[in-house]
Amino acid sequence: MNVKERLAALRAQMHEQGLAAYVVPGNDPHASEYMASHWCEMQWLSGFNGESGTMVVTLDRALLWTDSRYYLQAGIELKDSTIELMRESDIDCPSVAEWLCGELRITNDELRIGVNPEMFSVNDFKEWKEKFAEAGIGVKSVDLIKPIWTEGRPAIPSDKLYPYSADFAGETVESKLARMRESLESKVESQKSKDYALIVSALDEIAWLLNIRGYDVEYNPVVISYVVLEADKCTLFVNPEKIDSAAQNYLDFNNINVQPYEAVFEYIHGLRGTIFYDGAKVNEALYEAIDKGPSDQGPRTKAKNIQSPILVDKAKKNAVELEGERIAMRQDGAALTRFFKWLEEEAFQQPRTEWDLMEKLHEFRAMGENFVEESFGTIAGYQGNGAIVHYAATKEHCAEVKKEGMLLLDSGGQYLDGTTDITRTVWLGGRIPQQAKLDYTYVLKGHIALQTARFPRGTRGNQLDALAKQYMWQAGITFGHGTGHGVGHFLGCHEGPQNVRTDNNPTPLEVGHIISDEPGIYRTGQWGIRTENLITVIPAKQTKATTTEDEWLTFETLTLCFYDTSLIEMNLMTEDEIDWLNAYHVRVYKEVSPLLNEEERKFLARKCAALEVGE
Amino acid sequence: MNVKERLAALRAQMHEQGLAAYVVPGNDPHASEYMASHWCEMQWLSGFNGESGTMVVTLDRALLWTDSRYYLQAGIELKDSTIELMRESDIDCPSVAEWLCGELRITNDELRIGVNPEMFSVNDFKEWKEKFAEAGIGVKSVDLIKPIWTEGRPAIPSDKLYPYSADFAGETVESKLARMRESLESKVESQKSKDYALIVSALDEIAWLLNIRGYDVEYNPVVISYVVLEADKCTLFVNPEKIDSAAQNYLDFNNINVQPYEAVFEYIHGLRGTIFYDGAKVNEALYEAIDKGPSDQGPRTKAKNIQSPILVDKAKKNAVELEGERIAMRQDGAALTRFFKWLEEEAFQQPRTEWDLMEKLHEFRAMGENFVEESFGTIAGYQGNGAIVHYAATKEHCAEVKKEGMLLLDSGGQYLDGTTDITRTVWLGGRIPQQAKLDYTYVLKGHIALQTARFPRGTRGNQLDALAKQYMWQAGITFGHGTGHGVGHFLGCHEGPQNVRTDNNPTPLEVGHIISDEPGIYRTGQWGIRTENLITVIPAKQTKATTTEDEWLTFETLTLCFYDTSLIEMNLMTEDEIDWLNAYHVRVYKEVSPLLNEEERKFLARKCAALEVGE
């Protein structure tokens, strides 16, 4: 089937169901950042291969919403498909819901929209449904892709899962389950405090809770599955093929029952008592499976939308996880040292592209002990490409890199010990424009200000965001992405609930949270500069000068890699900042050099040389 | 009647109404910060004269909740009253609602609580009612104080109101009404866009909308009244005694109808169509007056809770209002210069108390052109008293001030031209402890960082809060109050919706907003240091370095008064900070000195002398 045939098949289904429109949102049932190809319904239906987009199909039109990163690609891939491109980054572009409520409404008297409830979180579905109800539009839960995507649809991955040792995780499954159960029990309002269940659908939460890992998704070592946690049992819903005898022993040992992946809906329907779910993550189909019907003795179940206690606890890394992060950071620092040495000394003996650099960096990282895979697709943005925030070079479409100008390199690794994510921007050669030095230094000053901040317990990331921006703001410069995201431990490179962003976020920073610290400046067509470390929240010592009972927090910098000091405008740096930089470079050398050979050590020593005021 | 007799009379009423408890929240019907004595029901019932508190009376107990500012006073004033003091600043103190839902619930099978709906905002009432409904407790709207407080109850003030010239206000009533009507019309969802009304109960909103002022409340030049604004008329509900012939002419000229204050309820009951109200301000009794019953042609009214468009517009000062503020600031600066000169050169020729200083400052302020009254009760906190954030000395209870140690002085004026609010902390004599200099300098650096910030349009105050705290945070010090509050124009010294606080606030800072910039450090028993300017948001020039389409904002400092430079620890100051301080002092001298005599000018010149780096 080609795209036109797929659309025709979908419309036949819509007609049968009495639907005026069908929406394919480009999600999976687990609210994943990276999806298994089985769930790439939007891509299959449209022929557009970008990572983000929403398809809307009506009886006579087909539209695809995507953001500015993908305009070019979508333009090419949607050609001759009859699908109209909706440029959602443009100010005058209506949202999917607006378009459906408005434009579509005019031409139809009675409207029903179809959506697959597995592809919407409970909260998103509720918001949509309310919006449509106001406009007199009904929403029907129905999967119309399944009946038509029968040929060539990739299966859900059946790779084996594996136990993740408590030596790395720092806590046994038994201990985690007991802690979660205690937390849930305290949230049950009825007398029967043991009469509860928690539905878990986020793959990183399941991996953390059960100390398991897998290969089902690129960049994230997770296992496609659901979990239902009850007072007296814990059930993992997963394709049985994924479990070998070692895994089976492990699950048995931990009293974890296994049921087939698809059995989760029926199982949920049979649950009674208080049923907890995190509406931001759990999909609407799971929620709809809950038996809400009343019985003679009152309603059978009480569904309760809560922030997942797994999410909250997973974010606070324990001492073993943090020690693992430190080990991974040394490996990562060694890989980057080797890469930058190669880049400076060897790379340009022949022509090089951004793709070559990405491959070479991967090669160096893969040498690291306990390296598993990259934690996201490396961004190697040369000159103007560095200014494209989500730039992703491919082997076919990438720029040649020369021994001059600016290179932005954002990359990370999944190690058994932990997850890394680092950005360094370096000058490859030629005269450095003064504005480039200024930009680099504003970014660096903000980057230092955030990771050296001290703050009272209770402070949220959005309160600290301006610390990283204040210097560039004074110069009339800002950037559009978050300053920091949460990071998992050998799990998602992006995780909640903590972050450092402009938007209000109610989550206070807590000891053990890991966040990135990555301000940037982007000059379209010229260069992009971003400097990123991972940092973790630690208790700060009480000072004698304190006036309050507050407990104090600060950050420990985890990432271990030098900065390109040739780009620093020293006149803008304070003594404190230079002292911090020098101390950091001493530490980088001390921690990374034992992993290097002599030549590499010499290179690193040169890069870590102390700066002096007035230099 | 004494307090015991009042409680007995209330209980008789409660018994008659079948109420298990009655709550007196210490509010007025206009959600005012400062109340007319007519509404001091909590004070009358309890005998406690603090400004803040909530009374709960049950059939056998009486309790008063108040915060730590008033523990001492309440302890004395409640003695022998049978009223139990609930210390609401203590961590283990239940809230009023918690106490009623919990402790009271145990002893009563069926419960109903009485409250006067005039004393609760719609939003607060709703929250309470829901909380009580969950606990199986009913809430009855009833005023039980009116029938028992018959003797000696102060009348609602009948002072005359007066027109406030558009020469000061910068906009005519006609223009304001037209703008508000346009805004409301756009919010009406039905076809009949003229079929709406806005209920206004906040006194500063009424004063701003109708360009009227009055004398009904201390510190705030407002008129006790309600307004109902419709497409074709505007009605002011006010005691007719308050209107003399000039005012009547003014109101007639502006087509403002007048009805008696109490007539508002019946008038609201007669309204049809969309009825807008700001549930954060409008009291529950007004809301209950809306006729929500259905008619044959569908429901009679649609009540819609919105943020008051008057609140939003009032906060954005026009050019005339801002010019007025600048004029008032010169007057204020002159008054403070005279005061500090007197303090340094004459005051201690005889013993002085904090109260003496407050009176003397009032004297100097009252000399100012267009001065009307103070904008709040002056805080003169000597030594350890400065560390009590809401310290209020009285003539009877105040400390002696000597020519040594620290004095915190927070005061402000209402001028026809605008409202001022300024805090300066000065050292009166003796050796300055090093910690005092450090504290003063951390505060000053934060105070400068906030008022010199540049930021993109859309930035909220809570994003900037950390800029004012970052230096003291590094020293492990913080403070518990907001860093900045909105300020009215010849109206409330505290107004919304903008502020600079730790708490998330969705309101972005906008051009014309006035806020205070007042970080502080408080050492119990030693000293309090606070430094406060009023600043207004202005557009910032686009820089050549900018990378985005963002519009940029910054602040103009309005307040004109020198800082005590003897308290500055110069080693902590950057060159930029010293440059700012010197430029500010040059400006203070230039703008204030024309109002001074020669001796005063000499004093001011000395106080404004330039500092040099390394001093």
Supply the key terms:
alpha+beta, six-stranded mixed beta sheet, globular, homodimer, about 625 residues
Describe the structure.
Two copies of one chain form a homodimer. With 615 residues, chain A is an alpha+beta fold. In chain A, 33% of the residues lie in helices and 21% in strands. Chain A is built from 18 helices and 32 strands. In chain A, the strands form ten sheets. Chain A has a six-stranded mixed beta sheet, with helices on both faces. A six-stranded mixed beta sheet of chain A has the order 12-11-10-8-13-16. Chain A starts with a helix and ends in an 8-residue tail after the last helix.
Task: Give a quick rundown of the structure.
2 copies of one chain form a homodimer. The first copy, chain A, is of the alpha+beta class and 615 residues long.
What share of residues of chain A is helical? 25-40%
Please, what is the average pLDDT of chain A?
A: 94
Structural class designation of chain A: alpha+beta
Per DSSP, the total helix count of chain A is: 18
Number of strands of chain A: 32
Task: Give the strand order of the largest sheet of chain A, numbering strands 1, 2, ... along the chain.
Answer: 4-3-2-1-5-6
What would you report as the Rg of chain A, rounded to the nearest angstrom?
26 Å
State the separation between the terminal residues of chain A, measured CA to CA. 66 Å
Which range does the strand content of chain A fall in?
A: 15-25%
Q: Which helices and strands, and how do they pair?
A:
Two copies of one chain form a homodimer.
Chain A: H1 3-17, E1 21-24, H2 41-46, E2 54-58, E3 62-66, H3 71-77, E4 83-87, H4 96-106, E5 111-115, H5 122-134, E6 137-141, E7 162-163, H6 166-169, H7 173-185, E8 196-200, H8 203-210, E9 212-213, E10 226-230, E11 234-237, H9 245-253, E12 256-259, H10 264-269, E13 273-277, H11 284-289, E14 294-295, E15 298-299, E16 301-305, H12 309-315, H13 319-345, E17 352-353, H14 354-366, E18 371-374, E19 379-382, E20 400-401, E21 406-411, E22 413-415, E23 418-419, E24 422-427, H15 434-451, E25 455-456, H16 461-474, E26 484-486, E27 495-500, E28 514-517, E29 520-523, E30 527-530, E31 533-539, E32 552-557, H17 575-592, H18 598-607
Parallel strand pairs in A: 1-5, 3-4, 5-6, 8-13, 11-12, 13-16
Antiparallel strand pairs in A: 1-2, 2-3, 7-9, 8-10, 10-11, 14-15, 17-20, 18-22, 19-21, 21-24, 22-23, 25-32, 26-27, 28-31, 29-30, 31-32
Helix pairs in contact in A: 13-14, 15-16
